[in-house]
OmpW family protein (Faecalibacter bovis), 211 residues
Amino acid sequence: MKKYLILATLLGSVATFAQNAGELHMRVRATGVVPMEDATIGAIGGNVSVTNNLIPEVDFTYYFTKNVAAELILGTSKHEVVATNTTLGNVDLGRVMLLPPTLNLQYHFYPTQKLKPYVGLSANYTVFYNEGQGKGRNAAVTDVAYDNAFGYGFQFGLDYKITDKMYWNVDVKKLYLNTDVTVATALDVTVPADVDLNPWLISTGIGFKLF
């Protein structure tokens, strides 16, 4: 009798482990990108100011088990950048576009039938493009270049079940991201800068179970 109880327990554990395994989910969210910027600027000193932005974002989550999943986030963000309190005053560097695909490894909890909180660790690679564009760029700045960079971070969030196929999501991520910036000027002087962006990504939206 005892061996049957053990077998039943093992089968139940396997069934619980396998639940959600192989599922693919998609979320459509609005994401606030809030940089917590800081910079070391060569020669002219000062710091940097980077604007916030609100963007649409799509992500896909694949469940390896009921609890363990991987999430891929896709979106692009535009920011205006100003070098502040330099020896030349405030220098408008124009805008920069960021394409930061981010992969999160998540662990999901199931405290109730409807509520599913989770935590995760993030790996990120950010591509910078259209650097220094925009009407606001200082006329003395001839070019601005940002190095693409790897970043890392963490996340926490929750899903609230609406139907078997749809749920509401709230998500917060913190990314640690550093890039080297080179500013070329009309005086043939090149100014390097070491910039920490370190943004918070605050999201909410609707998720769907695809299969």
